[in-house]
Amino acid sequence: MAKKTTLKPVMLSYRAVGSATAYTDVSGVLKGLTITQDEPESTEIEAEFFDSPFYIEYSGNPVTINFELANYDLSELVALIGGSVTDNKYEAATAAFTTEKEWKLDFQVGNASLVIYRGLAQATLKKDEDGALNYAFTITSLVYTDSNDVNHLYSIDGSN
Amino acid sequence: MIDESRINIYDFLYNVFYGTVTKNVYAAREPQELTKSDVKDGFVVLIVGELNDASEFKGETYGSVRCYVEAYIPPISRGRLDYDKYSSFENAINDAISTQIANSSNNDKYHIQESATLTSDIDGATVADNTFFTFIKSFIVYICS
């Protein structure tokens, strides 16, 4: 293995959590896709007679991917944000809809891809001034437990 | 950048303005040699500006580009502005843009955005030793995949 700088995302895709089937591409994404993970929350066990605590307990935060989907086929929306399509007409879900998928973000340079094993996706309708009618997606990583009871969060594939 | 060829945008503009404004239509820059008709009747030059791509990847989202139509109007005697010719050029260009917007379909690849149409002030230019009055109409073309 060698050190690599990873940049330039080239494709976002998804498939069912834990499956080995082919990924489905989500290509019509606006510029501005971001991946963030907040700093862990910390709880200090304070010492009475010292300035430093005895212990600091950290609890981590999930990885979050945000993007806006601007170019989509109405039939694509059903798998991502629920609702239904009949006769080229999309009917949105009437309640907040979430879906869990395995998400993969491929890169052109450096490591090959970032995989969120179990990402909870949620989207809202959005149109900025002078912009397209978009769906603003938030994908939040959840813990995925495989069939061997091993927990996973995300992985980076370095085989480029 | 968006998966788009600039020459296709020039072709789109050419079809909008050729014959509707004048048959003397040139792309990218004014010609080095002018025809008799260019000198007598005037001509237009089409310019495609910088492409702005909104795609994160794959160039499949959408893009926009500001385009320019430069009209070169020959003067009348003593180098005076030909009001009739000037207004006929301006009206014809406005009409060509309005017609294109009215006739465009949701599924077309290129769309002229009506609210982004601007006109510059009148000015003078010399092309191949001939003087012209010029004005520029500019507008945004949306490129949809």
Overview of the structural elements:
The complex is a heterodimer of chains A (160) and B (145). Chain A is mainly β and 160 residues long. Chain A has a single domain (7-157), classed as Elongation Factor Tu (Ef-tu), domain 3, CATH 2.40.30. Chain A is 5% helix and 53% strand. In chain A, strands 1, 2, 3, 4, 7, 10, 11, 12 and 15 form a 9-stranded antiparallel beta sheet that branches. Chain A has a two-stranded antiparallel ribbon with strand order 5-6. Chain A is globular and about 70 Å long. The model of chain A has no long low-confidence stretch (mean pLDDT 93). With 145 residues, chain B is of the alpha+beta class. In chain B, strands 1, 2, 3, 4, 5 and 6 form a 6-stranded mixed beta sheet that branches. The two termini of chain B are 13 Å apart. Chains A and B meet through strand 1, strand 3 and strand 7 of A and loops of B.
Beta strand count of chain A: 15
**Overall residue-averaged pLDDT value of chain A:** 93
Broad structural category of chain A: mainly beta
**Helix and strand pattern of chain B:** HEHEEHEEE
Sheet-strand content of chain A, in percent, reads over 45%
Percentage of residues in DSSP E strands of chain B: 35-45%
For the largest beta-sheet of chain A, the strand count, sense and barrel status come to: 9 strands, antiparallel
Pick out the low-confidence regions of chain A.
Answer: none
Helices of chain A, by number, come to 1
The total beta strand count of chain B reads 6
Q: Uncertain segments of chain B of ≥5 residues (pLDDT<50)?
A: none
Q: What is the overall pLDDT average of chain B?
A: 90
Question: What's the end-to-end separation of chain A, in Å?
Answer: 11 Å
CATH architecture grouping of chain A? Beta Barrel
| Net shape of chain B | elongated
Largest interface: A-B, 15 and 10 residues
- Amount of helix of chain A: under 10%
Name the quaternary structure: heterodimer
- Assign the CATH class of chain A: Mainly Beta
